[in-house]
Fold Sodium:proton antiporter.
Amino acid sequence: MNWVLIAMIIALLIPLYEACWQEDDVWEKMLAFASIATKSSMMILVVSVLRDDWMIGIAGVIILTVGNAGFMLLAQLLKRISYR
């Protein structure tokens, strides 16, 4: 099952490249960081299933639900500021 984690890490590096070394558009960077948060929480869930550890799984679920909500709130804040 190590190949699954290696593939997930490689998939995690793609939006990291987009966020750090590509365009300076704020929306693209926020989208890339939201993708990183989602993929890292999915990796945490896979590790928790492989280790049969529910506490790690609960932390992954909290990151998955709350992490993206913070990005949505930040996007709405930036949207309202730019309209003024």
About this structure: The mean pLDDT is 78.
